[in-house]
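Anyone have tokens for Undecaprenyl-phosphate glucose phosphotransferase? Sequence:
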Amino acid sequence: MIRENQKYFNRLLIVLDIVMIVLSFIMTWCLKFKNPIFIVEGGILTFKEYLMPAMLILPIILIAFSAFKLYSPFRHKSFLEEAWNIITGCFMSMFIFFGCIYILKIQDYSRTFSIVFIVISAIMVIIERGVVRKSLHSMRVKGYNQKHILIVGCSELTIRFLEKINRNKQWGYNVVGLVDDGVYMPKMDEREKEIFSKIERIGSIDDLEEIFSKEDIDEVFITLNIKEYEKLGKIINKSEKYGVRTEIIPDYSKYIPAKPYVEELDGLPVINIRYIPLDNLVNKFVKRTIDIIGSLTLIILFSPIMIGVAIFTKITSPGPIIFKQERVGLNNKIFTMFKFRSMKVQSKEEEKSEWTTENDPRKTKFGSFIRKTSLDELPQFFNVLVGDMSLVGPRPERPYFVDQFKDEIPKYMVKHQIRPGITGWAQVNGLRGDTSIEKRVEYDIYYLENWTFWFDIKILFLTVFKGFVNKNAY
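Reply: yep, here.
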């Protein structure tokens, strides 16, 4: 039923996209040739003469949208990802269209008109998709457009999956029940027990065929403990016998990246345990270019504030204005990080091993203010400029704590495979100061494995609105 509905929904999306593209063409025509602000000299083609070649671009755009999976289910896709695919699809279509009108030798067709048309089309389709997405989310939260799912297996993954379903009502997942052989029961705190108690156990794995016969199941999510993986084949075979799609949430996901990179050795699939997008030279070049341009711009913009902070630091407490400290950076190399001094002058040993706490007596009054507002971090723009740091990345730590954490916290050293940052995914999610190191590592590794240009933009945007002032920034 869901797959049938998806078919109709895709057709509706195509119709809506066509309407937006046609409206964009009319708007562009009016803007270009009917607006007194723009003076157009020389021979102007008629509306019909513009429309005929434009009929060519419509199927090109729709094919491009299909290539960028804009007609695939987007329950879990972010709106930013969808918007980026729309923009990319539109501009790719424009270049193909330019090639076509050149080959067909269509004269006097305004390239400016085409560019404005594509820009307006991208904007209109993004707005349309935003409205559709918002409407669907609202319907799913209210209990409509539900996808009925069955969870097979009981493990820590089951709890995590149920938490995410509860947190993301817009996914529209209705959990019909849990199927489990009762071999393994994960440890749960009170909150997790409450979530788990709302799910009914409706049978064992041997009962799957009977369940499929009685219940309307759209999809099966397998969350088996790794010790029960010999049952995978049986579960998949029974599901496919009844035409039910299966999704596996692997218990070994804690060892592999969120988006595993699969290679082949003479036909044998091999999963790369740690695929890092920033290992790609083009991605690395893009990020470094942004860092150089961004740090230079921010140094110029914030120079009056930095001068003011420097003066107040000097007159409110004795000692140097800039505090220099060794931190561990890319590939475990030590570098000197700069900050405005926010504490009284300390001995080298105190600097190396003392952890900052909420009411730390070493902080100056002005120091407390600049730490709370992150103004003490501004000199790190120079660290970014010289290449020791990035604008966005995992926060660097002191060598003393790195030596301690690498033995205590699994995967702690993974974050050193990219440049550390002034702000990061962990920081904009409130993980600053005296907060869980394990959680920070989890967020840092997610960023490292899922880096995109737009992910960086999102983090910088969130930093502006909720990252500078933070209750945990001591």
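Residues 279-467 form one domain.
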